[in-house]
Amino acid sequence: MNKTINLKFSYPNERAVVGEKLGKQVFKKQIDAVMTEEDWEGNITIRFPDSVIIIGLSFWDEFAKLLLDKIGYTAVMDRVTFVTSSDKLTSDLYRDLI
């Protein structure tokens, strides 16, 4: 099964997402709250809005920690696809998972 989640932020043209609090809030309300156990076992695409060009380390650390706690590093690497406004930003997210 494939699940795609299009993240939404307070402002439609948000350029940057930062802060542990926001990372935790986004994960809990937009990811964990809408995923079923079956969804967690399948492929997951998490799409950031194209307007977001900066994903702060504080945001990402908290968001990624919760994701890794939920399904583990191997599952994230094997089954989760992040989509961002640029290839570099996307590769940075995977790099910063550790």
TrEMBL record:
Protein name: DUF4325 domain-containing protein
Domain of life, per lineage: Bacteria
UniProt source species: Fructobacillus broussonetiae
